[in-house]
Structures are given as structure tokens and as C-alpha cells.
Design brief:
Helix content is 74%, strand content 0%. By secondary structure, the chain is mainly α. Helix 2 runs parallel beside helix 5 and helix 5 packs antiparallel against helix 8. The longest helix has 31 residues. The model has no long low-confidence stretch (mean pLDDT 93).
């Protein structure tokens, strides 16, 4: 693939790098801030229930504002990072197909064979349910909005399409930025074991390849959001009830 963005305005490499690095640092702070707030304050029960919806909305609107400003500085818009509805039907099939496939592989094979309810990540998820329908729906919103939409806009669309412009050779820039996107996204989930690395590297690599292959965010957003949502629902009914 030659270019995700098509025709682009000319920006100096220094300007691109400065905007990218400052946006990356501020973006991760915005992702972390609501988690810290509810985790420390324990307001309304802490990081569970309706608070998960508040976290999702804060992440979405704050990151959206940050990306809007950063792209404007670079003379770009959201279409330039792959946010468009071209070939929507194809992207829906790709996204939902990969999301469902990874969900089935996880819940039918990987999770049962690696500890099931005793896995640390499953126990952490179970602690975030409050037993209410509102809480479950709020958790799904966090997975779909905070994860599927917001993380893909930031970690896939913005990260790859902006960073690659800092390289002289477009193909080299694309694959280096894509590789860094996978690595930093995985590190952001703080994997503590080989299993944790497996669980995060496989899906984030799939999301990245979907983005690069289609030159659009639609399929990666749907794959990410559908997996998160199905994982939250299945974990609740299998391990939390």
C-alpha cells in the first residue's frame, strides 16, 4: 500500500515529530486520567457501574478534541487518517468477522486452557461488574467507545498516519510507524506475562493490518469494538454470575 492518506499538505519533519510526540504524551494522560480519578477517589463505587460510561465518554471527547487540534495544526482532517465510510459493507464483514473469530478462539480455547476464572485478567474484569444491567451496559460502552472507537482513532489512525510522514521513504515510514503502534499499544496495556503479551499482540496486530490493508479505520474499529463487547458480555455470563 503506497499511502493511507492520499494527497497531503507539506509539513516539516520537525513539526510532524513535535506534534506527534506532544499529542502522544497528552493523549495517554487523557486515557489514564479518568481511571486514576475513579480508582483513587472511589466516587460512586470507583471503577465500575455507571462510572465506566463516564470514563468512556471522557476518553472519547477529550481524545477527539486533542486529535482535532493536532490534525488542524498539520493541515489535516479525520479523513486523512482513514475515517470514512467507503466500502462500508466490506469493512463491516471484515471487522465483525475478525472480532468474532478472536472472541471464539479466546473463550473456547485460550482462556479455558490457561486458567479460566483464575486468570488475573478475568478476575480484574469480574471486579468491574456491579451486578446491574446499567453497569453491564456501561462496561460495554467502555469497551466499544473507549476501546474500539477512541483507541483506534488515536493508536491506529493518528499514530500511524502522522508518524509515517516523518520518514523520507513512505513505505519505510508506514511499517516502522505500524510496528511502533503495535508495540506501544501493547505496552500501554501493561502485560505482565507471556500470556498477556499473546493476548494483546495478536488482536492489535490484526487491527493494524486491517487498517493498513483497507486504508480505513472502519474495519479495525468494528473488530476492536465487537471483540471488546463480546468479551465483556461472555465474561459476565460465564465467570461473574
Amino acid at each position: 500500500m503506497e499511502d493511507i492518506q492520499g494527497k497531503q499538505p507539506k509539513n516539516s519533519r520537525l513539526k510532524i515529530v513535535l506534534v506527534f510526540i506532544s499529542s502522544l504524551i497528552l493523549g495517554y494522560l487523557l486515557f489514564i486520567l479518568p481511571d486514576l480519578f475513579f480508582g483513587i477517589s472511589k466516587i460512586n463505587g470507583g471503577k465500575k457501574g455507571i462510572n465506566l460510561l463516564f470514563i468512556a465518554l471522557f476518553q472519547f471527547f477529550s481524545i477527539l478534541g486533542l486529535l482535532s487540534l493536532s490534525l488542524k495544526i498539520l493541515g489535516k482532517d479525520f479523513k486523512s487518517i482513514g475515517l470514512n465510510a467507503r466500502k462500508l459493507n466490506k469493512d463491516i464483514l471484515l471487522g465483525l468477522g475478525f472480532g468474532l473469530a478472536w472472541t471464539l478462539l479466546q473463550f473456547l480455547l485460550i482462556i479455558p486452557l490457561t486458567g479460566g476464572a483464575n486468570r488475573a485478567d478475568i478476575q480484574a474484569l469480574v471486579e468491574m461488574y456491579d451486578g446491574s444491567l446499567v453497569g453491564l451496559l456501561s462496561f460495554i460502552a467502555l469497551g466499544a467507545i473507549g476501546g474500539g472507537i477512541t483507541e483506534e482513532l488515536f493508536n491506529r489512525g493518528f499514530f500511524i498516519s502522522v508518524l509515517k510522514d516523518a520518514f523520507k521513504d513512505p513505505k519505510t515510514g508506514l511499517w516502522i510507524s505500524a510496528s511502533l503502534s503495535v508495540l506501544i499499544f501493547a505496552l500501554g496495556h501493561m502485560p505482565a506475562s507471556a500470556l498477556d503479551w499473546l493476548d494483546i499482540l495478536i488482536p492489535t496486530t490484526i487491527y493494524t493490518l486491517l487498517y493498513i490493508k483497507t486504508q480505513r479505520l472502519t474495519a479495525s474499529i468494528l473488530a476492536h469494538a465487537s471483540y471488546n463487547s463480546m468479551a465483556i458480555i461472555l465474561t459476565y455470563y460465564i465467570y461473574a454470575t
